[in-house]
Amino acid sequence: MKQKSQWILLLATSMVSFMSTIDASIVNIAVPQLSHDLHVPMNEAEWVVSVYLVLICMLLIFFGKLSDQIGRIKLFQIGTLIFVVGSLGCGLSMNLPLMLGARVVQAIGASMTMATNFGIITQIFPRNRHGVALGVNSSFVQVGNIMGPGLGGLILSILSWHFIFFINVPIGLIAFVFGYKIFPKEPAIHEKLQIDFPGYLAYVLAIVSFFVAIYWGQEVGFAKLKILGLFCLSAIFIAIFIFHEIRVSNPLLNLQIFKNVGFSIGVISTMLVFAVGYFNNMIMPYYLQETLKYSSAVAGLILMAVPLLNIFSAPVGGMIGDRIGADKVSLIALVIFLISELIFMFITPNWGIVWLVIGLMLFGLANGAFQNNPMIMGNAGKQFQGIAGSIAALARNLGMSIGLSLSTSLLYFGISQKAGRHITTYPEHNPNWFVYGMHFSYWFAFALIGIALVLLITLVKHQKKAV
């Protein structure tokens, strides 16, 4: 395939990656309007957000396995069209059942594209350009993850919430046409499809138990016996899933892939980094608008420091990774992450805005330079590229979910500790309580990055010994 066509296809797959990722967070800012227009309580309107994320996590492994049997490009193209149809349905919905139904369709399409895009990129590009190609795609994914609330707010300031979904339709159709014209033709596969449905059922039950525990725990507290019981139930189903997959002849997930230390560490560190990213998503808008009293427009401009640096550093990090190794570039990125987290751990309103912008810029630089996709895909064998891409996407989505839960729970726990009573909203008359809760949260974010750093150092040492 010509180099020009490779980059056009990379742009097409990255556009779909951006849309499917941003739709996990862009709807958050529209929940109040959805609640009002659909005539449902706020907590029911939030199902529009949660059903999308949960379904993607449930379906990624299934479509990763399916793509290895019927072809990644075919599944990606079908998924793009399904995502477009779901987006159109969401925009046209006039009540909650229709909205949730359309959101299910959208999630099915998104999971099909997420499970296949990395495998397509590694299939199209030669190995010596995997880093930069996956880096470009990563910048779209990570910017989509970060920009959701800001872009949603911009759309809502001009148009109605319907256009948060309508905007996906022309972009998705353009990406599909590009793919149809330029994607290489895959050979037809006539083998009988083989899916391990008992294993998949155990996996689905584990995911459902986990998410119910997270969402319910945020309301009633994670120390409750019923919440701990759900987490235990999720762990039991995971154990059943692993036990079954080891023994079945054609497993849903070939666990041999995790024997590669680089792959396993890449998956875990990706989950940790995406979890930490959600700390900024949840905490910084409150700090800027409620504590520092900036307008939403000014706060949005300040927060743009993260995606702007991310866009620059992701492809550059990928190019450097092609030369010295994705793990070494990621190691440097994690050190930069720690510096930014240190600033967030100690910053106060007296420091001035410059220090906050520096912290956000360092965070954006590190977020882009962290080579999660090349680490995961580069350490997966050629026969595992389809399922490896779905595992990478699953790690991202689980990380976002865990980060959402951790950041809000730790923030309000810290505020409550300072106040001496239970608080679940911004303390209007005591902004210093919020600053204390923010610092308390970022200590944990710092620790998560520290764990990822230790894992990467272990990996680099392991690879030196192997050489």
UniProtKB/TrEMBL annotation:
Topology within the bilayer:
Multi-pass membrane protein
- Name the InterPro entries for this protein: EmrB-like, MFS, MFS_dom, MFS_trans_sf
Localization recorded for this chain is: Cell membrane
Keyword Transport tagged: yes
Q: Where is the Major facilitator superfamily (MFS) profile domain?
A: 9-464
The record's GO molecular-function terms, alphabetically, read:
transmembrane transporter activity
| One GO term describing the cellular component | plasma membrane
Q: Which domain of life is it from?
A: Bacteria
* Membrane-crossing segments per the record: 7-27, 47-63, 75-94, 100-120, 132-155, 161-180, 200-217, 223-243, 263-288, 294-317, 329-347, 353-370, 391-413, 433-460
Keyword annotations for this protein, in alphabetical order, are:
Cell membrane, Membrane, Transmembrane, Transmembrane helix, Transport
- NCBIfam families cross-referenced by the UniProt entry: efflux_EmrB
List the protein's name.
MFS transporter permease
